[in-house]
Please model this.
Amino acid sequence: MKKLPKEPPSSEITPESTYKRRREFIRNAGIAMGVAAVGGAGAYYWHAAAAEDGKPPPPPPPGAGKFDTGEEKTSFEDITHYNNFYEFGTDKTDPAANAGTLKPKPWTVVVKGEVEKELRLDFDDILKMATPEQRVYRMRCVEAWSMVIPWDGLPLADVIKKLKPTAKAKYVAFKTLLDPAQMPGQKGTALEWPYVEGLRMDEAMNPLTLLATGIYGKPLPNQNGAPLRLVTPWKYGFKGIKSIVEINFTETQPPTSWNIAAPNEYGFYANVNPEVDHPRWSQKTERRVGGKRIKTLKFNGYGEQVAAMYKDLDLTVHF
Model:
């Protein structure tokens, strides 16, 4: 079994003073245009494609995103400089330092398996499959750290409906790009490559599940999974597969990278559950990047939206 990373010490967490600089950073980066309320509960975000080619995004629609948590958002700087993306290195700072080799344009996604018609889609074709949603999610990771990230993207359910899976499709599997020249971490053995993940079909169709294309109104940075990644905010962060190049509809449960690496530690479901400790650390609390250690909420606080999917499962067994 491969040696797995330890829970990050508090010394690795970005200091609160850095977190407090978010407005200055955003202003200097030119992101603040039209987003005067970016730090508050009434913040709103729009589709990443609107900010491409250096053009300022249009004014956002009124009101907060449907799933805005009302929490203080993590700064753009922290979100883009404290990452897990082993394809670019295993330290939290490695992805930001090394991901410049990734070429997110042009980008193709293969659709295969239990689907009416197998397809090869350009990234722009995917963007046209749904009306952009403005959402803000809480995203937490198994290492006991968390962020509040203003994601831009498309509901996965809307995309799946356009792809027309067959009645045999019970799961949706995803695969990350395999290209060691672009992703130098794949030359190592931290995990089996390419990275793979999957969801049960009802999880994939849940309104919370997102194909993310951006953060803070800008396209996804390379280190955050450009150009397309999965977000399931009631699950631990390793379920958020990045740089997706394949969507495969399957009749049986697909393999997932961390379950392959350590099946006794990382289950298929990966639901946030403070009642079940990780074998090597407690999951009762988490450290908010740039902030304090806080109590972890079951299903990451989204129980009302997702708990019914697991009413017949023993979550201490199906972790």
